[in-house]
Automatic annotation (TrEMBL):
<dbReference type="Pfam" id="PF00528">
    <property type="entry name" value="BPD_transp_1"/>
</dbReference>
<feature type="transmembrane region" description="Helical">
    <location>
        <begin position="200"/>
        <end position="222"/>
    </location>
</feature>
<keyword id="KW-0812">Transmembrane</keyword>
<dbReference type="InterPro" id="IPR010065">
    <property type="entry name" value="AA_ABC_transptr_permease_3TM"/>
</dbReference>
<keyword id="KW-0472">Membrane</keyword>
<keyword id="KW-1133">Transmembrane helix</keyword>
<keyword id="KW-0997">Cell inner membrane</keyword>
<feature type="transmembrane region" description="Helical">
    <location>
        <begin position="98"/>
        <end position="117"/>
    </location>
</feature>
<protein>
    <submittedName>
        <fullName>ABC transporter permease</fullName>
    </submittedName>
</protein>
<feature type="transmembrane region" description="Helical">
    <location>
        <begin position="14"/>
        <end position="42"/>
    </location>
</feature>
<feature type="transmembrane region" description="Helical">
    <location>
        <begin position="54"/>
        <end position="78"/>
    </location>
</feature>
<keyword id="KW-0813">Transport</keyword>
<dbReference type="GO" id="GO:0043190">
    <property type="term" value="C:ATP-binding cassette (ABC) transporter complex"/>
</dbReference>
<dbReference type="GO" id="GO:0022857">
    <property type="term" value="F:transmembrane transporter activity"/>
</dbReference>
<keyword id="KW-1003">Cell membrane</keyword>
<comment type="similarity">
    <text>Belongs to the binding-protein-dependent transport system permease family. HisMQ subfamily.</text>
</comment>
<dbReference type="InterPro" id="IPR035906">
    <property type="entry name" value="MetI-like_sf"/>
</dbReference>
Length: 241
């Protein structure tokens, strides 16, 4: 009973803070995935464009941000961004240090990393589209915009869901690294709780369980989305054009 009260649900427990930290972890991961989706789509388009310069830019992006340690990127975004904000503040007459918000820095850093992986997911999904579907879209008179909206996007998303699920899990785990910026996400809160109570094993186990709960729920959501996408018939929309 004392352990349960310590973890959680008594007046002096840490349970509410850990649950709030899990929510923060979900929010920062979702924000990072959204940022990465935009960057990934742009980079994938560049790599599929066939233009040498754009392909080179896309290759450099994916190589750098998949090869450099995630923690280093977080440091660069957080401290580099804070320095840039401070410089802008000084130019506007403000004296003193201006730090980049931890949530924003974490979401940007994880989003940039996620974008490198999502670019490859989107590129592979596009290449998986049957050429016959694109030829059929042209044959019935679809213009480029309509073909992109009715055929390419639904098919790319359908093929990309499994890969995006993996990227989400990767980003969810990478979010633990944001604790170095002071953001009170799940890892940081587990560390503070463990240090305050000297119950290191207990709180790190609880933190690990919460991460497993998040990843398990995420798996169910992505698996459900994949089944639903496979049941739908995106090519049927061509007949409605």
């Amino acid at each position: 009973m004392a352990t349960l009260e310590l973890i959680g649900f008594g007046s002096t427990g840490w349970g509410a803070l850990l649950l709030l930290a899990a929510l923060v972890t979900l929010c920062v991961t979702a924000s990072a995935l959204a940022i990465g989706a935009v960057l990934g789509a742009i980079i994938a388009a560049a790599k599929l464009s066939g233009k040498t310069s754009l392909v080179a830019i896309g290759n450099v992006y994916t190589t750098v941000f998949r090869g450099v340690p995630e923690l280093l990127i977080i440091y660069l975004i957080y401290f580099g961004g804070s320095s840039a904000v401070t410089s802008i503040g000084k130019a506007m007459g403000y004296e003193g240090f201006l730090g980049l918000p931890s949530f924003l820095a974490g979401a940007l850093a994880i989003g940039i990393i996620s974008g490198a992986y999502q670019a490859e997911v989107f590129r592979g999904a596009y290449l998986a589209i049957s050429k016959g579907e694109l030829e059929a879209a042209n044959a019935i008179g679809m213009n480029r915009g309509l073909r992109f909206r009715r055929v390419i996007i639904p098919q790319v998303l359908r093929f990309a869901i499994p890969g995006l699920g993996n990227v989400w899990q990767l980003s969810l785990k990478d979010s633990a690294l944001i604790s170095v910026t002071g953001l009170a996400e799940l890892m940081r809160t587990s560390q503070v709780a463990a240090g305050s109570t000297r119950q290191y094993f207990l709180f790190f186990i609880v933190g690990g369980i919460l991460y497993l709960v998040l990843t398990s729920l995420s798996d169910r959501i992505f698996n459900g989305a994949e089944r639903r996408a496979n049941r739908s018939m995106p090519t049927a929309a061509m007949g409605k054009a």
